[in-house]
Amino acid sequence: MNKIIFIKDIKSYSPKNAFIARLTQEILTEDDLFNELNKQLFFPDYFGFNWNALSDCLNDFRWIEQEEIILIHYQNLLLDDLIMNIYLEVLLDAIEKWEERKDHYFEVVFPMDLEVKINHYLENIL
Is the pLDDT of residue 11 over 70? Predict the structure, then answer.
């Protein structure tokens, strides 16, 4: 089971018939992250801009009609280690839940040059 995918030519990665959320902005803080995810994933008005609300929305996706949802990170997230660990844990939880449910497919993508860094974080979580 692939949890997070790393792609060399991320700018050309664009699967057909998928809803693609592209995080292209520099993300320095937790608030930046919540704001950008809200904007790119079109979260409902009830999104509370906190970790529980993020988890709830990543485990719902009723407002997105495409079955495949891809969250692409185009650059390094400049978050502190604690925030990055929480974020990756929330992402992994959502990926696993969608694998069980099968009504949506949730894929998380990072550039290949971040694989070592992201895997280091993932080792602390798994």
Answer: yes
Model pTM above 0.90: yes
In this predicted structure, what is the pLDDT of residue 1?
45
Cα(116)–Cα(114) distance, integer angstroms: 6
Contact 126, 119 (CB under 8 A): no
Based on C-alpha coordinates, what's the Rg of the chain?
14
Reference 115, options 4, 23, 2; nearest CA is: 4
- Residue spans of the domains in the chain: they are 5-125
Architecture of domain 5-125: 2-Layer Sandwich (3.30)
Q: Could you give the CA distance from residue 68 to residue 56 in angstroms, rounded to a whole number?
A: 18
